[in-house]
Amino acid sequence: MSQRQGLFITLEGIDGAGKSSHVDALEALFRATGREVLRTREPGGTPLAETLRGLVLNEPMDALTESLLVFAARRDHVVNVIAPALARGAVVLCDRFTDATFAYQGGGRGFDLGVLGTLEAWVQGGQGGVPDVLQPALTLWFDLPPETAAERLAGARLPDRFEAQPVDFFRRVADGYACRASADAARFERIDADATRENVWAQVEAAVRRRGLL
Ligand code: TYD
Description:
Layout: E1 7-12, H1 23-31, E2 37-41, H2 47-58, H3 63-87, E3 91-95, H4 98-108, H5 113-123, E4 138-143, H6 146-153, H7 167-183, E5 188-192, H8 197-210
Parallel strand pairs: 1-3, 1-4, 2-3, 4-5
Helix pairs in contact: 2-3, 3-5, 4-7
Bound molecules: thymidine-5'-diphosphate.
Thymidine-5'-diphosphate (TYD) binds near residues 100, 101, 105 and 162.
């Protein structure tokens, strides 16, 4: 029996865009085709990376420290979880990945994009069975005006270091996502997240079908 190729899909968007609420249905869609589905998230996805997540989300630090920690978490996650899952043919659904670093640390915090690009190449560089620089096959970008996202988040749970940022920060994050999307348009599917949950899901499902991934 020929081994199926792994499929790496990421979900991105500013806080409040609602991306995480579609992971269950995406998982079901791929499981129905008989595939192994691995759900994971960043920062996180391994014990070490989850520890780093706690620091990044809660401890004050500068933008370089933040960038190094999210990439350190990513390295551990890629080496120990993502690359092995792709090598055995699984569908990997990852809630955020490197586009979030370009959007949040690059756009939001104003950190050097060239340094982020160097770290990206180092951290996602070739390891067992994955291409030279590992990138998602598809990135579902949930795009929502920052003002609408802020309304959705208001009064929700206790905000972390990012969720507590003013709307201006999220405007820069949203611009960061838009830049990444236009630099790699073939990888991105823009989902208009300013719609009902049902409509947003219909867009997600259509994007996956259109690309022949099912
Ligand atoms: P998020 O994915 O929104 O999880 P939850 O739904 O539990 O809040 O939270 C992760 C936060 O981390 C989010 O605010 C974005 C931020 N982040 C970065 O700043 N850089 C990164 O590289 C990643 C992956 C996330």
